Amino acid sequence: MPMSLDKLIEGQLAFMQSHYEVIAISSGGITLDAVGAKESVRVIPIEMSRKITPFKDVWALWELYKLFKKERPFIVHSHTPKAGIVGMLAAKAAGVPIRLHTVAGLPLMETRGAKRKVLNIVEKMTYACATMVYPNSFGLRDVILKNNFANKKNLKVLANGSSNGIDINCFSPSQFSNDVNSKLKKDLNISKNDIVFIFVGRLVSDKGINELVKAFKQLVINKNLVKLLLVGSLESDLDPLLPKTLNEIINSKHIISVGYQSDVRPYFAISNVLVFPSYREGFPNVVMQAGSMGLPSIVSDINGCNEIIIHNENGIIVPSKDSISLLNAMQKMFRDDELRFKLRDNSRSMITSRYEQKLVWEALLDEYNNQIANV
After folding, report:
1. Burial annotation 207-226 (CB, 10 A radius, 16+ → b, else e)
2. Is the pLDDT of residue 114 over 90?
3. Domain 46-165+357-373 adopts which CATH fold?
4. C or N: which end of the chain has fewer Cβ atoms within 10 Å?
């Protein structure tokens, strides 16, 4: 999807364009055109489906192969599972010398049965076609090794993890004045005394939304000055929420759902705590963004999240898929001002010192240069 280029590696293409000639490829649309203009790179649309669609996938593979033979790139670097398998297969078939794949999460981790076996094969094929694989967290690297998807010598975590780092100047609470924050709170019917828990991301089951809404419903029973702010779009076709979850989101006066937002910073600026109970991640940008905006986080104990958040230093880590533990953590954040303020005060510095964007970009540039030098 062009959204991946636009959000997951925003700014990275423009940075690399000053060192290499960059072409960005994804499914087409106005978002892809906008990425080209914003990043000052050439873009080429090739339709790719996020689902398992053999005929469409073979067609995408053929189109990419023809493109690579025409353009003759020295490096092909793929992101996301579908772009990974078609991109790495096409690049190898076309004789591209350096084939790099970034792993930012493994959807197969929440899959079982025959589908899991198919996805395992696809993952192994992707890595086998790549000359190097970059898990964007150390935990994800361990999962890949545990499942024998790739050899250790072909795996590398760049910098301290993350696919793109964080723009600490853009994601800064100083960008938003008290007046601007007060106006947005008023527009959303949030009082100045409300404790606001925020979730940013797709509103789907494997992001832990069912558990989040269940826990929040219990929190609200005895608490009036509390809101849950949901920032993200529903994806009812791929991973729908439970009907009772949807009903609660629609009918609860304490839950505010604002849909997808191109700029999530104003919503972080009016919030107190990020809640991110995802089932699986690579290295979640949202948790870094929230921390850079000065928010403590409640996250599930999964890859990436448990590297960005250090328990009781800049947030709280809870077991995945556990609404009771999630409720206890939210209650603690709500009741214990001293704890919440301590975690808040640590949050921004713990992100800026480890994940500043230029550190990640420079590490990737060094990797490109080293790969070329060794060919």
Report:
1. bbbbbbbbbbbebbeebeeb
2. no
3. Rossmann fold (3.40.50)
4. C
